[in-house]
Amino acid sequence: GLLATSHQFRVDSRVFGDDCLFKCTYDFSSLPPGFFERFIVRMRRHATHMDFNAYSAAFYRMGTKLQVFVNRDKDNQNAATGLTALFSSTKLWPKFKAELNAISKFFPGMQITHFE
Predict the structure, then answer these.
(1) CA 78, CA 70: separation in Å to the nearest integer?
(2) CA distances from 86 to 49, 52, 79, 89, 98 (A)
(3) Would you tell me which of 29, 31, 70, 106 could form a disulfide with 55, CB atoms 3.0–4.6 Å apart?
(4) In sequence order, what are the beta bridge partners of 52?
(5) What is the largest CA-CA distance in the chain?
(6) Residue 116 gets which letter from DSSP?
(7) pLDDT tens across the length of the chain (116 residues)
Protein backbone atom coordinates (compact mmCIF):
# COMPACT_ATOMS: atom_id res chain seq x y z
CA GLY A 1 0.00 0.00 0.00
CA LEU A 2 0.86 3.63 -0.08
CA LEU A 3 1.13 3.88 3.70
CA ALA A 4 3.82 2.36 5.84
CA THR A 5 2.66 -0.70 7.77
CA SER A 6 2.90 1.26 11.02
CA HIS A 7 0.24 3.67 9.71
CA GLN A 8 -2.15 1.32 7.94
CA PHE A 9 -4.40 0.34 10.85
CA ARG A 10 -4.26 3.48 12.94
CA VAL A 11 -7.35 5.29 14.14
CA ASP A 12 -7.30 8.10 16.66
CA SER A 13 -8.54 6.48 19.88
CA ARG A 14 -10.60 9.58 20.67
CA VAL A 15 -13.15 8.56 18.00
CA PHE A 16 -14.19 5.64 20.21
CA GLY A 17 -15.72 6.37 23.55
CA ASP A 18 -18.25 5.17 26.04
CA ASP A 19 -20.73 7.95 25.30
CA CYS A 20 -22.99 5.69 23.23
CA LEU A 21 -26.27 4.78 24.90
CA PHE A 22 -27.50 2.01 22.59
CA LYS A 23 -25.80 -1.24 21.65
CA CYS A 24 -26.57 -4.16 19.37
CA THR A 25 -24.59 -7.24 18.40
CA TYR A 26 -25.06 -9.34 15.30
CA ASP A 27 -23.45 -12.78 15.24
CA PHE A 28 -22.91 -14.67 12.01
CA SER A 29 -21.46 -18.10 11.36
CA SER A 30 -18.58 -16.13 9.77
CA LEU A 31 -18.01 -12.87 7.94
CA PRO A 32 -16.72 -13.37 4.41
CA PRO A 33 -13.70 -11.41 3.15
CA GLY A 34 -14.77 -7.95 2.03
CA PHE A 35 -17.99 -7.85 4.07
CA PHE A 36 -16.89 -5.17 6.53
CA GLU A 37 -15.23 -3.05 3.85
CA ARG A 38 -18.36 -3.07 1.69
CA PHE A 39 -20.52 -2.36 4.72
CA ILE A 40 -18.56 0.74 5.76
CA VAL A 41 -18.57 2.07 2.19
CA ARG A 42 -22.38 1.75 2.16
CA MET A 43 -22.71 3.38 5.62
CA ARG A 44 -20.43 6.25 4.61
CA ARG A 45 -23.18 7.76 2.47
CA HIS A 46 -25.23 8.40 5.64
CA ALA A 47 -22.45 10.20 7.51
CA THR A 48 -20.77 13.57 7.21
CA HIS A 49 -17.51 12.19 8.60
CA MET A 50 -16.02 8.74 9.13
CA ASP A 51 -12.93 7.23 10.78
CA PHE A 52 -12.07 3.58 10.19
CA ASN A 53 -9.50 0.83 10.19
CA ALA A 54 -9.64 -2.86 9.26
CA TYR A 55 -11.72 -3.84 12.34
CA SER A 56 -13.67 -0.76 13.40
CA ALA A 57 -15.37 2.36 12.09
CA ALA A 58 -16.94 5.48 13.54
CA PHE A 59 -19.59 7.43 11.64
CA TYR A 60 -20.81 10.94 12.49
CA ARG A 61 -23.93 12.76 11.37
CA MET A 62 -25.49 15.91 12.82
CA GLY A 63 -24.25 15.38 16.37
CA THR A 64 -24.78 11.62 16.41
CA LYS A 65 -22.18 8.88 16.42
CA LEU A 66 -22.23 5.23 15.39
CA GLN A 67 -19.32 2.95 16.27
CA VAL A 68 -19.04 -0.46 14.57
CA PHE A 69 -16.60 -3.18 15.61
CA VAL A 70 -15.81 -6.52 14.00
CA ASN A 71 -16.17 -9.33 16.55
CA ARG A 72 -13.43 -11.97 16.53
CA ASP A 73 -13.74 -15.67 17.30
CA LYS A 74 -12.47 -16.41 20.83
CA ASP A 75 -10.48 -19.44 19.68
CA ASN A 76 -9.33 -18.13 16.30
CA GLN A 77 -8.64 -14.38 16.34
CA ASN A 78 -8.30 -14.40 12.53
CA ALA A 79 -11.95 -15.42 12.13
CA ALA A 80 -14.50 -12.60 12.06
CA THR A 81 -17.84 -13.72 13.44
CA GLY A 82 -20.01 -10.64 13.80
CA LEU A 83 -20.49 -6.95 14.35
CA THR A 84 -21.13 -4.87 17.45
CA ALA A 85 -22.64 -1.42 16.96
CA LEU A 86 -22.81 1.38 19.51
CA PHE A 87 -25.18 4.30 18.85
CA SER A 88 -25.24 7.69 20.57
CA SER A 89 -28.93 7.94 19.58
CA THR A 90 -31.41 5.88 17.60
CA LYS A 91 -31.26 8.20 14.55
CA LEU A 92 -28.73 6.06 12.65
CA TRP A 93 -30.29 2.73 13.68
CA PRO A 94 -32.70 2.42 10.66
CA LYS A 95 -29.90 3.23 8.22
CA PHE A 96 -27.53 0.78 9.92
CA LYS A 97 -30.13 -1.99 9.82
CA ALA A 98 -31.06 -1.31 6.17
CA GLU A 99 -27.43 -1.31 5.02
CA LEU A 100 -26.63 -4.45 7.01
CA ASN A 101 -29.60 -6.25 5.42
CA ALA A 102 -28.64 -5.03 1.94
CA ILE A 103 -24.99 -6.09 2.21
CA SER A 104 -25.96 -9.43 3.75
CA LYS A 105 -27.98 -10.21 0.60
CA PHE A 106 -24.90 -9.55 -1.54
CA PHE A 107 -23.02 -12.43 0.09
CA PRO A 108 -24.62 -15.85 -0.48
CA GLY A 109 -25.24 -17.85 2.66
CA MET A 110 -25.04 -14.89 5.04
CA GLN A 111 -27.29 -15.62 7.95
CA ILE A 112 -27.61 -13.90 11.31
CA THR A 113 -27.19 -16.59 13.97
CA HIS A 114 -27.84 -14.31 16.95
CA PHE A 115 -29.01 -10.73 17.55
CA GLU A 116 -28.83 -8.93 20.85
Answers:
(1) 11
(2) 16, 14, 21, 9, 16
(3) 70
(4) 57
(5) 39
(6) -
(7) 444 554 455 555 445 556 667 888 888 877 888 889 999 999 999 999 998 888 899 999 988 889 999 888 777 766 778 899 999 888 888 999 999 888 888 887 676 666 66
- What number of residues does the chain have? 116
DSSP E strand boundaries for the chain: 22-28, 49-52, 56-61, 64-72, 80-87, 112-115
Is the whole model's pTM more than 0.85, yes or no? no
| The amino acid at 97 | K
pLDDT of residue 27: 84
Angle at 45 between CA 44 and CA 51, to 5 degrees: 20
Taking each helix axis as running N to C, give the angle between helix 35-44 and helix 93-106, from 0 to 180 degrees, rounded to the nearest 10.
140
Among 7, 48, 17, 36, smallest CA distance to 106 is for 36
Number of neighbours of residue 36 by Cβ within 10 angstroms:
21
